[in-house]
Amino acid sequence: MTEGAATAYRRDHPDAELHLLGGGHWLLETHLDEVLPLVRDFLARLGAPT
Predict the structure, then answer these.
(1) Are 43 and 50 in contact (CB under 8 A)?
(2) Model-level pTM?
(3) Which of 5, 6, 31, 45 could bond 23 through an S-S bridge, CB–CB 3.0 to 4.6 Å?
(4) Cα separation of 43 and 7, whole Å?
C-alpha cells in the first residue's frame, strides 16, 4: 500500500505497526534481508513457529 494509505490506516488503528519500506511491488525479491526480521518478529509475538 502507499505511504498515504498506510498513514490513513494507522489513524484508524493507532496501535498498528507501520513499516515504510521502499521495495515496491517486488519487495520480497529486492529487500528480503530487511523484511524477514520484521515478519519473524511479528510471527514470534503471535506465538507461531519461525
Answers:
(1) yes
(2) 0.72
(3) 31
(4) 23
CA distances from 3 to 19, 21, 43 (A): 9, 9, 23
Cβ–Cβ < 8 Å for 40, 48: no
If you ran DSSP here, which 8-state letter would residue 47 be given? T
CA 45 to CA 49: how far, in whole Å? 10
4 CB-near residues (< 8 Å, 6+ apart): none
For the stretch 3-13, pLDDT in tens is: 999 999 999 99
